[in-house]
Amino acid sequence: MGQSDLAVNDGSYQQLLDRIGECLALGRQRAFEQVNSVLVETYWQIGRYIVEFEQAGKERAEYGSKLLQVLSRDLKAAYGKGFSRSNLQYMRLFYLNYENCQTLSGKLSWSHYTELLAISDDLARSFYEQQCIQDRWSVRELKRQKDSALFERVALSKDRAEILALAKDGQRIESARDVVIEPLTYYHSQFTPSNSRKGF
Questions:
Q1: What is the spatial distance between Cα 86 and Cα 72, in angstroms, rounded to a whole number?
Q2: For residues 14 and 16, what is the distance between their CA atoms, to the nearest angstrom?
Q3: What are the residue ranges of helices labelled H in the chain?
Q4: What interhelical angle do 110-117 and 122-135 show, nearest 10?
Q5: Is the model's pTM score more than 0.70?
Q6: In whole angstroms, what is the distance from residue 130 CA to residue 38 CA?
Q7: What is the residue-level pLDDT of the chain in tens, covering all 200 positions?
Q8: Closest CA to 166 of 118, 139, 134
C-alpha cells in the first residue's frame, strides 16, 4: 500500500490528520490569547507609568500637554512603531479607567479596549465590554453595535437598577424584543428639548 492509498483509504489516518489539525488550531489560539493578554497588561503598565509621572509633583507640571508628544517621539526612536501620541493617550486613559489590572479581560484585545475607551459614559462602556466578553464580539462587531446605539435602545426600556445591572452583567439577547423598540419612541427620546441643545 502506497502513501496515497494510506491517506485515501485508512479512516484512522484521517482521524490522525484531524486531531493534529485541531491541536494546532487550539495551540495557535492559546498562543494568540497569551500574547494578547501580555500586550494589554504591558499597555496598562505604560499608562500607569505616565499617570504616576504626571502626578509626581510640581516640578513636572512644566511638561503639561507636551509630555505625550515628546514621549511619543522618543519611544518611536528607541522602540519603533506603536507609540503614536494617540496610542499613548489611550494607554493613559486605559490605566485611569481600569486602575485594577486584575479586572482586565484576557478575552479582549487592545483594539477592543481602544474602542471601549472612546465611549465617555461609564455605564455604556461597561455594558459594551460585558457584551464583548459574553458574546465574543469582534472589534468590527463592537463598532457596529456602538454605531447602532444598542445600549441606548436597550436602556430605554429599563429602569435605573436594571441599567446598572446591564452595565455589570451585560444583556442576554434572547429575542428580537430585547433590542427592538418603537422607532417613534427612540426618535422622541433623541429630540427632547434638552438633547436638541446638544446638537441632536
A1: 9
A2: 5
A3: 3-9, 11-54, 66-79, 85-97, 110-117, 122-135, 139-147, 150-155, 160-169, 183-190, 193-196
A4: 150
A5: no
A6: 20
A7: 455 555 556 778 889 889 999 999 999 888 888 888 899 999 999 999 999 888 875 555 556 668 899 999 999 999 999 899 999 999 999 999 998 887 788 889 999 999 999 999 998 999 999 999 988 999 999 999 899 888 888 878 766 666 666 666 665 554 444 444 333 333 333 333 344 334 43
A8: 134
**Burial level of 20, CB count in 10 A (0-12/13-18/19+)?**
exposed
Q: Count of residues for the chain? A: 200
Cell matching residue 28 = 495557535
Contact yes or no for 33/106 (Cβ under 8 A)? yes
Match 494607554 to its residue by C-alpha cell: 91
3-state secondary structure 4-58: HHHHHHCHHHHHHHHHHHHHHHHHHHHHHHHHHHHHHHHHHHHHHHHHHHHCCCH
- End-to-end alpha carbon distance in the chain: 75
Q: Nine-digit cell at 57?
A: 509633583
Burial of 92 (0-12, 13-18, 19+ CB in 10 A): buried
Query: Rounded CA gap, 117 and 22, in Å?
Result: 35
Measured CA to CA, the distance from residue 143 to residue 171 in angstroms comes to: 17
